[in-house]
Specification:
By secondary structure, the protein is α/β, with parallel strands linked by helices. The chain is built from eight helices and nine strands. Helix 5 (128-140) runs parallel beside helix 6 (158-175) and helix 7 crosses helix 8. It starts with a strand and ends in a 5-residue tail after the last helix.
């Protein structure tokens, strides 16, 4: 079942074309990544989906109810003056759910996300990886049908990023959240995705759609020859868009 589809979506800012007839889809329970050069318009797609940018041309179809998206930005965006438990319930409270009920929804997930002992801490007291876990829990607990992740691990150091990717893959395999990820990291895309869309430089259009048939789990073990082959193809495709060659 198709959870999300964009059909001939184009966006222009003033006289600058940003997206050029973008077509992509995400199936229910699928993990799809979007790769592209910097400034190609990847985050613009998320702005369209979350409604912060009005649709200009084309159509966006989403199965299920309205407000189907839960969005996790590049940085954790935790409120520094709110304790972790109050950050975790923030999205639910914005939806009108009373704080007591919001905490009841968050509670069963605390152990799974490794945060059970840190609910009374403030964000500054947590490591970068733990803050990202909190941001992801806050996203997931909203109960939306599609998770939008905008480079969620990009601000982390290399070791913490690898640990978080492995941790996230384990959680995703158990829950099968329908997920759309924007990333600059070719290896991350191959490690986490079922399919990958590659965008051209601006104005962005889809120039490749790659299936990743590698068995899971993929992280925590040496990359397969097939993974290296897909990574090399993606990297070469992206380098061509920047006018460079490998």
């Amino acid at each position: 079942m198709t959870a999300l589809s964009l059909n001939d979506v184009s966006v222009t800012f003033g006289d600058i074309p940003v997206l050029d007839r973008i077509n992509l889809h995400v199936e229910q329970g699928e993990f799809v990544s979007i790769l592209g050069p910097s400034g190609a318009g990847k985050s613009t797609i998320f702005r369209l989906l979350t409604g912060t940018l009005p649709l200009q041309t084309g159509t966006i179809s989403c199965a299920g109810r309205e407000n189907s998206f839960a969005f996790m930005p590049q940085r954790d965006a935790l409120m520094p003056w709110r304790r972790i438990i109050d950050n975790l319930t923030l999205g639910l409270e914005v939806q009108g759910i009373p704080r007591k009920d919001a905490r009841a929804q968050v509670g069963p997930l605390l152990g799974e996300f490794g945060l059970a002992d840190f609910t009374t801490h403030y964000p500054a007291q947590l490591s970068g990886g733990m803050r990202q876990r909190a941001a992801l829990l806050r996203t997931i607990v909203q109960g939306r049908s599609i998770q939008l992740l905008d480079e969620p691990f990009g601000a982390l150091d290399a070791l913490t990023r690898t640990q978080m990717q492995t941790w996230f893959e384990d959680r995703w395999r158990a829950a099968r959240w329908t997920t759309l990820l924007v990333t600059h990291d070719v290896r991350e895309a191959v490690a986490l995705s079922d399919r990958i869309y590659v965008l051209s430089r601006r104005p962005a259009r889809v120039i490749a759609e790659i299936n990743v048939p590698i068995p899971r789990p993929r992280l925590g073990r040496p990359p397969s020859a097939q993974a290296y082959e897909i990574e090399a193809y993606l990297l070469e495709t992206l380098l061509q868009q920047t006018g460079e060659t490998s």
